[in-house]
Design a protein that fits this description.
Blueprint: E1 11-16, H1 26-29, E2 35-40, H2 46-52, E3 58-61, H3 69-74, E4 80-83, H4 93-98, E5 102-105, H5 111-127, H6 129-137, E6 155-159, H7 163-174, E7 178-182, H8 188-194, E8 197-198, H9 201-207, E9 210-213, H10 227-232, E10 237-241, H11 250-258, E11 262-267, E12 286-288, H12 297-317, H13 331-354, E13 359-368, H14 376-391, H15 400-406, E14 410-416, E15 424-432, E16 436-444, E17 448-454, E18 457-461, E19 466-473, H16 478-488, E20 493-500, E21 506-513, H17 519-526, E22 531-538
Parallel strand pairs: 1-2, 1-3, 3-4, 4-5, 6-7, 6-9, 7-8, 9-10, 10-11, 11-12, 13-14
Antiparallel strand pairs: 13-15, 15-16, 16-17, 17-18, 19-21, 19-22, 20-21
Helix pairs in contact: 5-7, 13-14, 14-15
The structure holds 1,4-dihydronicotinamide adenine dinucleotide and 2-oxoglutaric acid.
2-oxoglutaric acid binds at residues 62-63, 85-87, 110, 291, 293-295.
Length: 539
């Protein structure tokens, strides 16, 4: 994706608020082209962070720091929040998006570690390893209290079959377990290919001897495993949560263990962390680690490298690899789509300057080749162009859609394959209370962007620099009079396009001129006979 950049000469303040691998932030340390000022201060309270954040451009965190709306609002210069890890539930994404702050994470770097930790927790749970270890350390040689169960031939239920869930399943199969999984994106073919069974959440929890959750914490997954689900589970089921506290209802889990329905639970994560005084920890059937799923040398280095590289990439190119609050575009597609970003933005800018009333609705149609791409980032760029006139620097492609919707603009996107003779065509129509305006643009192979239609008139205009958009009656002499009047004002015409709906009807002139014009210049031209309207447009 493409978004705003800072110039390389600017000082870029990078604030690291959680402990990160020093090897992992090596890319930031050795960066010479950008003027990076890296500050590490961990363990701050929200108030302390707020005090320090005003001049920060990049905030880098793991899971400890809660990046709240208040922190984001106080960070007047913040452009990017980097999360060295997967889960972004500690970041107020809505606030970040509203403030135009891009959030990036490192989704791949800790998958392996989290999966290995899950298997370690499951095995420890099955064999009471932490409890037995604890007893022995306290001088008690107790063998009969710690008789465990085998994993072989047991069924593991996996809820959330993304990166980590899938890796857990591979390993569980290595333990000769049967795996049944639920994920809205898991297909029958993929399940077959992996040698697992696909089920609904209820089918998974009913069939399983061990249940492990690997979803993100979202409104839909909060308390996904609750008393209704415990009620339909097998007796003596064992539960593992190495994803996020809150996916399993902690009170219902406590009750299910106390009632003897659940034989044990292995927890790496809690609703409130640090969880040193949690009632679940008082139960002998519960084993726990303090959010260690990603705590390996390898994972910490890997996530910090990934997020550091994305910071550098963002300030050098305006693009990032792992955006969280923007649609992401695969690397191989980016080069093809990038030229359309500018075109889409220019079309938005054009319309913002011809429209005189608040926009109520925008219809964006993508035709031909461009319709093959994920067009959401293009729409965001178009909206950015549209809103810049009134929102200036505050609008970017992260928050353009949010801002548009907030001010009540209805956004409709359409895709069609027919591009009216062009290989690609973006047509944007805006509606206000009393006006409708349309502009269409294309990318001409080897020649760059062109505006090819304004309202109902066919034109061929390079969307760049200063334009004059004149509406007139199609009468002889109109073009000459405009040219003369502009010459009187020392305004040089570079190119001129004309179009009309019918002989003697309404016509337009699209002029590119060398310099901007004043209000007075516009009025001067507007007074001419048969001239209806004159607008200055800068692209
Ligand atoms: N304990 C730790 O240190 C770590 C914890 N995590 C947690 O693990 C989570 C999963 O990580 P990944 O596998 O890398 O993410 P992922 O994005 O690859 O997979 C998450 C999966 O959950 C699925 N999902 C979403 N809503 C669902 C629902 N209602 N029911 C069932 N499935 C649903 C998604 O379709 C997706 O396939 C992260 O969001 C993070 O919270 C991740 C790394 C380390
Ligand atoms: O930063 C950490 O160690 C936590 C990792 C984690 O929970 C995640 O990546 O979602």
């Amino acid at each position: 994706m493409v978004t705003k950049t800072a110039t390389a000469t600017n000082l870029i303040n990078v604030f690291i608020a959680d402990p990160l691998s020093e090897d992992g932030i090596f890319p930031l340390r050795q960066e010479t082209e950008l003027n990076l000022n890296v500050v590490i201060e961990t363990g701050l309270t929200a108030e302390q962070l707020i005090e320090k954040i005003e001049d920060v451009h990049v905030l880098l965190v793991r899971s400890q720091t809660k990046v709240t709306r208040e922190i984001i609002a106080a960070a007047k210069n913040l452009k990017l929040i980097g999360r060295a890890g997967v889960g972004v539930d500690n970041i107020d994404l809505t606030a970040a998006t509203e403030h135009g702050v891009i959030v990036v994470n490192a989704p791949d770097g800790n998958t392996n570690s989290a999966a290995e930790h899950t298997i370690a927790m499951m095995t420890s749970l099955a064999r009471h390893i932490p409890q037995a270890y604890n007893a022995l350390k306290n001088g008690v040689w107790d063998r009969k209290s710690y008789v465990g169960v085998e994993l072989k031939n047991k069924t593991l239920g996996v809820v959330g079959f993304g990166r980590i869930g899938t890796e857990v399943a591979y390993r569980a199969k290595g333990q000769r377990m049967n795996v049944i999984a639920y994920d809205p994106f898991l297909t029958e073919d993929r399940a077959k290919e992996l040698g697992i069974t696909k089920g609904t959440v209820d089918e998974v929890v009913q069939a399983a001897d061990f249940i492990t959750v690997h979803t993100p914490l979202l409104p839909e997954t909060r308390n996904l495993i609750n008393k209704d689900k415990f009620a339909i589970m097998k007796d003596d089921v064992r539960i593992i949560n190495c994803a996020r506290g809150g996916i399993i209802d902690e009170n219902d889990l406590y009750d299910a263990i106390v009632e003897g329905k659940v034989a044990g639970a292995a927890l790496d994560v809690f609703v409130e962390e640090p969880a040193t005084n949690h009632k679940l920890l008082t139960l002998p059937q519960v084993i726990a680690t303090p959010h260690l799923g990603a705590s390996t040398i390898e994972a910490q280095e890997s996530v910090a490298v990934d997020v550091s590289n994305d910071i550098i990439k963002f300030f050098k190119t305006g693009t990032v690899t792992n955006p969280v609050n923007m649609p992401s575009i695969p690397k191989e597609l980016l080069a093809q789509v990038e030229p359309f970003f500018e075109l889409a933005e220019k079309l938005g800018k054009f319309l913002s300057q011809v429209t005189t009333e608040p926009i109520k609705e925008i219809n964006i149609s993508y035709a031909g080749e461009v319709a093959n791409y994920d067009v959401r980032p293009l729409t965001s760029n178009n909206l950015k162009g549209l809103l810049q006139k009134n929102h200036g620097e505050h609008v970017n492609d992260v928050n353009a859609r949010y801002l548009s919707e907030r001010i009540g603009i209805k956004i409709n996107e359409h895709k069609t394959t027919t591009a009216k003779g062009f290989t690609n065509l973006i047509t944007v129509e805006v509606k206000t209370e009393n006006e409708v305006h349309t502009v269409a643009g294309t990318l001409l192979n080897g020649l760059g962007a062109r505006i090819v239609k304004v309202e109902n008139y066919v034109v061929d205009v390079i969307p760049q620099g200063h334009l004059l958009y004149i509406k007139n009656i199609d009468k002889p002499g109109a073009i000459g009079r405009v040219a003369t009047k502009l010459a009187e004002k020392d305004i040089n015409i570079a190119t001129m396009q004309v179009g009309r709906d019918q002989v003697g009807g309404t016509a337009i002139m699209m002029l590119t001129i060398d310099n901007g014009v004043t209000e007075e210049d516009l009025n001067y031209v507007a007074q001419l006979e048969n001239i209806d309207e004159v607008k200055a447009i800068t692209l």
